[in-house]
Specification:
globular, about 240 residues, alpha/beta, 5-stranded parallel beta sheet
Length: about 240
Amino acid sequence: MIKLNKIPTTAPEGASKKDYKEKTKALVERLGALQHLMYAQGKYSAMVILQGMDASGKDGAVRNVFDACSVAGLNLVSFKKPTEEEFAHDFLWRVHKVVPQKGMMTIFNRSHYEDILIQRVHGWIDQDRVDMRMRAINAFEELLLKDNNTQVFKFYMHLSKEEQEVQLMERKEDPEKFWKHNDGDWEERKHWDKYMDAYEYAINNSVIPWHICPVDNRWYRDYFIAKTLVEHLEQLNMKLPGTE
């Protein structure tokens, strides 16, 4: 049973920022090469979920980790409040239509987990419906993996409440970051404990496991995500067509 308050939100003690940034640079280049193989071979796809509290660094991770990936084989999807059309369908409808086809890598900035996080925290759905949706999510992700060779990577962006305050204040006070400021983020922060409960539920009830990524140190966040992706994709032993 994973308890988030027992897991550090910072880099390992004694970790060198300079050393890890060098390691990350090499991993980012390798990820780009692996994504090229995925795109050329057209056998596998990858769905990368970045899920976390406001100011947990999802946008920065996208910029830094996928910098060497080709835009031809890369998609980014951000999930915001559902539209009227999306509300009129089942909660997975808007997700299923944007999952990656073979050869593609798709990054989800937030995801289908919003429908058992924010809706649970605010009491818009009851626990029975949360449980039903969790079962549907597990079946959905297993379908992608087992029926379409879609590699599912789920990163919980593990941010401390103290660091979130720092990041949100920077958005409010730094003119270059003010465009990110949203009063609603401060309102959601008031529900921190409820969100932690909701995240722990999602993490502990998932069939495909989550990677708990410490994000207080952004340089370690990038290393963690890049390393996780590279190590898994290397195991697929992908090859260029004609060399298999």
